[in-house]
Amino acid sequence: MSNKIVCQNRKARHEYEIDEVFEAGIVLLGPEVKSLREGRANLVDSYAKVKGGEVFLHGMHITPYSYAHHMELEATRTRKLLLHNKEIKRLIGKTQEKGLTLIPMKVYFTPKGKVKIELALARGKKKYDKRQSLKEKDMKREMDQAKKRYEH
User: How much is the pLDDT for 117?
Assistant: First the structure.
């Protein structure tokens, strides 16, 4: 069985240079989990911050569950992430380095039904770095197409 992906931050690989990836749990309320099961989430403009020995996710949008009338939840509220102390201490050291930030890459359900979030420790790319990576991607695509034509 594989993970059921709820949402991904596709722009992240273009905008950032990923150094390291972490898996974290996320503290959610019942209606938020039901909303995630329907795939109603968005990671655009979201980021994570270490504060007081804990990691928090800011800006992740989870559309309120339509049938939860007993709870009014803010769609972009700050949510706590669950990581091991060793990982948090490491992240504190790394995020204090110049230019490194924590970005959520994707949200998914494990086969056991737990919601997990993939965090990446990343450094922002400059405009010329983005152009360079696009050139490399285009060259690779052209080489693959040429190889395909040659084989047939």
Answer: 92
Give the model confidence (pLDDT) of 81-104 as tens digits: 888 988 888 888 878 777 788 889
**CB of 37 closer than 8 Å to CB of 5:** no
The token duo for 86 is: 């060793």
Q: Residue 94 and residue 117: Cα distance in Å, rounded?
A: 19
Cα gap 143→149, rounded to integer Å: 10
CATH of 4-125, one of 2.40.280.10, 3.30.450.20, 3.80.10.10, 3.10.450.50: 2.40.280.10
Nearest CA among 26, 24, 19 for reference residue 93: 19
- Give the Cα separation of 15 and 127 in Å (integer): 9
Residues in the chain: 152
